[in-house]
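User: Sequence in, structure out. Go.
Assistant: Echoing your sequence, followed by the structure tokens.
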Amino acid sequence: MLPLNVLQNESPRPAEQLSASPSVKHHCGLFGIWGHPEAVSLTYLGLYSQQHRGQESAGICSLDNGRIKRHAGMGLVTEVFSPRVLQEMKASTAIGHVRYSTTGSCTKLNAQPLLVTYSRGEVAVAHNGNLINAALLRHEYEEHGAIFNTTSDTEVIVHLLAKPGHCDKPNAVAHVLTHLQGAYSLLFLFADRMVAARDPFGLRPLVLGRMDNGAIVVASETCALDIVGAEFLREVLPGEVVTINDQGMKSEWIAEPGTVRPAYCIFEQIYFADPASDVFGDNVHMVRKAMGAQLAREAPVEADAVVPIPNCARCAAIGYAAEAKIPYERGYTVSHYAGRSFIMPEQTQRDLAVRMKLNVIKANVRGKRLIVVEDSVVRGTTTRGKIGALRQAGAKEIHLRVASPPIKFPCYFGIDFPTPSELIANTRTVEEIRDYLEVDSLHYLSLEGMLSCVKHPARNYCTACFSGQYPMPVDYPVSKFAMERHQLRMFE
């Protein structure tokens, strides 16, 4: 296969410069629009509204007179794009991406959308998710002479698309996707069409909307539709490939509806998605509120106030306080300029972000018995710091209530959870975690209680990080930095 011309020039970092202990991070956000004169500016807004899904890099590709322009860089959307850049990219069609790295390191090299040229012309690709067979596919292609220019699993997709036996097919994208294993919501931009696709398990969200002028919008979350004034149409269904062009929309299927049981990522509801979004048919705020109420029923305790750990735990804390009939209070003030500590690339950065972001309201916690509500506890280090700040401020008692079950297992489908030994609940009992966090009592929401708060049957959600029951076999070694460390030899 002829090598692809990936339009990026940065060299990957040497393996020895990579973190030996990759941190827990978030995943990515997608946005695309076909048929609007302000498509690029609207894509900018759509990405801005989904900044919570990734803060490492941002990029936009626009289609103008059959040619695709690209601009991407490291940092937040507001840092990567200036008014001048947006004006230079102006077009009626665009796709965009905000990223955090689940496969491949955090470098400009891996910023998306990727833009490549192959035998059928140009194509831009933006990906949310993680491919568990990417390393194996890459190894096979390299054995046949393919040259890879990034260290992202997404580039595997364009090599598959460029293979002569694949690109000649009338349904080339759908055919290529049948070779992928793992989680993917995807946006492709070709010279004559935009394509949106979702894996057969529906692990990651993807929705369709329509503007007043008829333009079609695709986004990871409905909050992005809201910010650009688009009407929500429906979800891209699990296993669906939607082709969008000037004639409208057309659907193909990777797997026929009903043949694969969905495995919606429950962590979208717990932490990742914006509370204003509707994800998998449920409003995120209402689900988190219901989880808090269920937690109050499962783990009541006498206290003076219910205090959320901002920001995601606010919804659950509202539900807990209402159900327990205990006043909801603010225990912290929040700086909105420090970023989300969960997705910072290093532990020292996460610790610093916590100190910069949260400041205890001492007069509101001193001498009080507090129920502190947290959405999840992953490694425990940042939670311990937040609890310690309340102790230093004079809290009399601290009862930690976590609005999700203990996270015991790694995720291979787009959430960069660490190795099992780094997950606090994998190596400690609840009582040992309580001791480590230095709280008076600790209770997690039960798995059954959590699943009672969502719309679909329990069997239709991926709960692998809690239960260890993965929706598909993970047959290949999965490593975030496999591409940099040349671990592909494991398949020889």
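User: And one key feature?
Assistant: Residues 5-263 form a domain with the Glutamine Phosphoribosylpyrophosphate, subunit 1, domain 1 fold (CATH 3.60.20.10).
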